[in-house]
Design brief:
The protein is α/β, with parallel strands linked by helices and about 110 residues long. The protein has one domain: Glutaredoxin (3-Layer(aba) Sandwich). It contains four helices and five strands; from the N terminus they run E-H-E-H-E-H-E-E-H. It starts with a strand and ends with a helix.
């Protein structure tokens, strides 16, 4: 999972990758730290062409998270071809995330 700290890095990632998952979290967010490896494993197993990136909202990515209007944690955003397809906030499961990713991923990569 890449670490993103600036809006410029984020824009470059979204322009260069057809599918991106952003995890907005924090070092002191227990749920965020528990989700991060589980999301990484799910993506590696089921969605290998989806590039994952992490924004530390309590550290180096604090300004970026404010620019993106992220005010609670965790937040996951899923982009295909630079367009946001899904956003999950605070309380969600891996099944919810899988449901948000599956159809657009299959349409993008298995057509």
């Amino acid at each position: 999972m890449l670490n993103i700290e600036t809006l410029e890095q984020l824009k470059q990632l979204l322009e260069s990758q057809p599918a991106v998952l952003l995890l907005f979290g924090g070092e002191h967010c227990g749920v965020c730290q528990a989700l991060k490896p589980r999301i990484s494993a799910m993506l590696a197993d089921e969605y290998p062409l989806l590039q994952a990136a992490y924004i530390d909202c309590q550290g180096a990515g604090q300004q970026l998270s404010a620019q993106m209007s992220i005010f609670s944690l965790p937040v996951v955003q899923v982009y295909f071809d630079g367009e946001k397809f899904a956003e999950l906030q605070r309380v969600f499961s891996l099944a919810d995330l899988r449901e948000a990713i599956d159809r657009p991923y299959r349409l993008s990569f298995e057509s």
